[in-house]
Amino acid sequence: MQSLPRLLKRPKLLSYTWRVKFHTSCLSQQDVLMGTVDKWGGVTVDLGSADCGLEGTYTHTSLRELDAFAGMLRNSLKQWKMEGKKAVWLKVPILQSRFVPVAASQGFQFHHADKDYSMLTAWLPAGSCKIPHFASHQVGVAGCVLREDTKEVLVVQDRNRETSHMWKLPGGLSDPGEYFGETAVREVFEETGIQSEFQSILTIRQLHNYPGAFGKSDLYIVCRLRALGHVIDHCTEEIIGCKWMDVSELATSQSTSLISTHVARLVLYGFREGFDKVDIGMKELPAVFRNMTYKLYHRQIPDS
Amino acid sequence: MQSLPRLLKRPKLLSYTWRVKFHTSCLSQQDVLMGTVDKWGGVTVDLGSADCGLEGTYTHTSLRELDAFAGMLRNSLKQWKMEGKKAVWLKVPILQSRFVPVAASQGFQFHHADKDYSMLTAWLPAGSCKIPHFASHQVGVAGCVLREDTKEVLVVQDRNRETSHMWKLPGGLSDPGEYFGETAVREVFEETGIQSEFQSILTIRQLHNYPGAFGKSDLYIVCRLRALGHVIDHCTEEIIGCKWMDVSELATSQSTSLISTHVARLVLYGFREGFDKVDIGMKELPAVFRNMTYKLYHRQIPDS
User: Fold this and answer.
1) Which of A7, A45, A163, B89 could cross-link with A35 by S-S, CB 3.0 to 4.6 Å?
2) Secondary structure letter of residue B133 according to DSSP
3) Could you tell me which residue ranges the Nudix hydrolase domain spans (chains A, B) (predicted)?
């Protein structure tokens, strides 16, 4: 509880506290939100946590409840600024999103949202905001599946696209937690029925303001895959055409993308001079935290 | 307006329409939300648009308004399902987030949110959801800045980290719209005061569930940069130590990360055999849409 002199210096707070106490039974009598503090001077308040200072389960929306939250947040921001805090993170369960406009009117913005929650942030100090960005790139992966016996590459024609006349490498967006090679092998199998094995990365495209990336950037990774079979059984829902094509035909085709012709030229060079001349190889290594590993892609050099 | 037989078949709709008409003056009398349809069978409704069927500016929150929206959304979903629509996208301005819990209770989830809006999605057909994921990777870039005269590499010690004793390559998260090399050059300059020039990519690490990536994945790209000067003027806010170190020392150091020793070994090999043996080179190419370009990273081969 606060001492009287502290309250007297803050008449607005007093009146707010009064409202909370006497009008909204479901709100805590504390006048600040409770959060956890991180080592970078940030505070995180989780409105879904029983410890955040908002009590009860709010099954209805009332102006009074939002008013009380507004006062509590204003008050908390004052205190955090006084304490020299930097970033404030406000995690809001999707069903409690009625609190979001209140936070927005006090300077919060969406940092990100995923499935059942949103995360809002506010930067307290003067000067530029140093809150780290959320994920900035979507990752699409294509498989350049090669038959060693015939020197052919697997190509497809998409359904539902302006580009349906073009022969492309099969591929798609990576699922959460997939490594590049895993995405390539999965997408190739889903689209064409061909089983394959990851060999290397051939090329990486970085493109900003990609249409369909919701304002974010796109990485398109082409993996070299070794075909483990050659009988095509393509997905008719996504694909209207699928065939094995001479790599040299893809390298000069007008009915494909510039990146596919680039890849085809790399492959032709690889067939001629050895794939060690075009591959970006892969190693799995242990991460410093938890029991995690990561994949490292680089040119392979002799062990020294 | 609807014909009488259509209304008779849908008694719930009738009662809902009645409520909208007679009790909430700020809601449209239309009984469905208006959206735009895309070529994949998706509907996008922007609650911030005057055309979405919700009229007026909602300066207050009332249960009635939310009830009316709930009816309208339920009704819209029925109609979209009947029409064979697949994905529904609901764009909600941050100040109108009070509508989000209503949508959530009808099966919507957050797809993403950024600054001043959130995007919710629902998948209508039976079977697995085919709504594309939002950006899945954050991108951090480090600069491996090399002095050609002394064969030294620029290394730093971070402030505020458990790893402050470790010598690391300077770097940080990419800003929106930056290419890998641009991030590396900017971060190196900000942290160390050293101007440099992008040469190539040396390695790419892919790591999932990265701490600090908000549940997303991390890409860490190490770029080879050529030092354009060697007088260090490091940022004391972020960095506690900065120096030029023999590459061979970094290659065997215990006070650095496994990835840094890997990079140092690549550089030693490059000094000995030529950087064409370790570089992943870069080209700028025109994109097929708008007047955009992209960067393509791959091994450089002779023009054929």
Assistant:
1) A45
2) P
3) 136-272
Given the structure tokens 């009117």, which residue do they identify?
Answer: A105
CA distance B255 to B250: 9
Q: Give B300 or B182, the one with higher predicted confidence.
A: B182
Alpha helices in chain B (DSSP H): 4-8, 11-23, 63-82, 100-104, 180-192, 247-252, 258-273
Interface touch B297/A203, C-beta < 8 Å: yes
Q: What is the pLDDT of residues B27-84, one digit of tens each?
A: 444 588 999 998 888 999 999 988 888 765 444 556 678 888 999 999 999 999 999 9
CB contact under 8 A, B105 and A116: no
Q: Is the pLDDT score of B2 beyond 50?
A: no
| pLDDT (mean) for B285-301 | 82
| Cα A164 from Cα B289, distance rounded (Å) | 15
Residue listed under structure tokens 């209503």:
B102
Handedness of CA B246, B250, B254, B257 (dihedral sign): positive
CATH code reported for the domain at B137-273: 3.90.79.10
Q: Which is the CATH superfamily of the domain at B4-123?
A: Gcn5-related N-acetyltransferase (GNAT) (3.40.630.30)
CA dihedral sign, ordered A160, B294, A141, A155 = positive
Instruction: Verify whether the Cβ–Cβ distance A299 to B266 is below 8 Å.
Output: yes
Looking at the predicted structure, is the pLDDT value of residue B304 above 60?
A: no
pLDDT digits (tens, 9 = 90+) for A232-263: 998 888 889 999 999 999 999 988 888 999 99
Rounded Cα distance between A169 and A264, Å, is: 10
Parallel, antiparallel or unpaired: strands B43-46 and B87-93: parallel
Task: Give the minimum alpha-carbon distance from B5 to chain A in angstroms, rounded to a whole number.
Answer: 36
Report the alpha-carbon distance of residue A92 to residue B235 in Å, rounded.
35
Tell me how far apart the alpha carbons of residues A302 and A304 are, in angstroms, rounded to a whole number. Answer: 6
CATH topology of domain A137-276: Nucleoside Triphosphate Pyrophosphohydrolase (3.90.79)
Integer Cα distance of B75 and A126 in angstroms: 48
The 3-state DSSP class for residue A69 equals helix
Domain with CATH 3.90.79.10 in chain B: 137-273
Cα A41 to its chain centre, rounded Å, is 24
- Residue A51 corresponds to which amino acid? D
Sign of CA dihedral A146, A149, A151, A157: negative
Query: Which residues in chain A have Cβ-Cβ distances shorter than 8 Å to B118?
Result: 97, 110, 113, 118
Q: Look at A8-17, A262-271, A279-288, B289-298 and tell me which has the smallest mean pLDDT.
A: A8-17
Instruction: With beta carbons under 8 A apart, name residues in chain A contacting B61.
Output: 61, 63, 66, 98
Task: Tell me whether residues B269 and A301 touch, CB distance under 8 A.
Answer: yes
Residues of CATH 3.90.79.10 domain(s) within chain A? 137-276
Most A CBs within 10 A among B62, B123, B182, B204, hence the mutation to make, goes to: B204
Are residues B98 and A61 in contact, defined by beta-carbon separation less than 8 angstroms? yes
According to CATH, where is 3.40.630.30 located in chain B?
4-123
Domain A11-123: assigned CATH number? 3.40.630.30
